[in-house]
Amino acid sequence: MKHFFKTMLFVLAIGSMISCSSSDETDNERWDEDNEYASVRVSHEGTTVRLKQPGQLHQVISLKNKKHYDRLIVRGQLNGTDILTLRELSGTNVTGDSVKCFIDTLDLSKSMIVSGGDIYYTNNSSAFGRTSDNVIGPNMFYRCGFSKLVLPYGVVRIEESGLMNCYNLKEVEMSDNVTTFGISAFANCTKLEKLNLSKALSTIGAYCFTNTQSLKSLTLPESMSIIPEYAFTLSGLEVFDCGNGVTDIRVGAFSNCKELRSFTFGNKLAFINSRAFYNCTALRDIYANAMTPPEISENSFEGVQKETVIVHVNSYTIADAYNNNMLWGRFGTITYQ
Hints:
Number of helices: 4
Number of strands: 25
Radius of gyration: 26 Å
Shape: elongated
Mean pLDDT: 90
Strand content: 25-35%
Structural class: alpha/beta
Largest sheet: 9 strands, mixed
Distance between the termini: 82 Å
């Protein structure tokens, strides 16, 4: 009998634990609205929409009776039709014309971009805005007006002009799955201040960060090997660190970065090409971690007051190598720590 009661108490206890666990899960997934297209919840975190199938976001969020979203969180699979809906809520339409923006923060971290659906962007002469799996496609968020974007966790690429001309964009969050930024991916994002680069980022396109005037500091991951042509031209960078992976800085990469005062490169850098630092008039400190002076041209630092620049190296022997180099020797001071 005692054994029976002990068994019953054990069963009741386990049942109670399961009940509490189920209740917690139910509370976590409580929805204010649930229909055939999606579930919707409004909380202190923002408005969350969980799509049940791709292409249905416009069925849930009315484009005729739009309202403002401080934070819109979208979960589930998103195809071209859904991206077009997000564009129309974010200040632009299928042709890139400006409309009123209704989103401050767009959080897509728990969503997945999939192929299919409508064209989300066209420039009237050609239609090239079609979604692909786990890719921020060409012009996908071109001219969108949100101030913060959290990318889907599974995204691996941001293609050409993917976030170009997002004039209000201040912050972008991404996972370490992202490997590639295309040509002009962030060009003219003049308010962009905060960007956590993926540790797996290996390629960025030419003009990628052109005219990002509010971006003040950036460190590249070691997976990066080339800084392409005009990648950061006209940016507001003040402090830049190449990391230890970069071997080649291409033509005009930092041209007209007039606020750049401190530049660090790693031990693999071999080439600094023509006009790479053209007109970087504020440059005062170069932290050179390469034992052999990288090859530079006569005009790699054109417009820079070389006599006021201090080149910092790691040893007396390396300082000698830089001082004895015909072009590096023109800098004002080469010192070692």
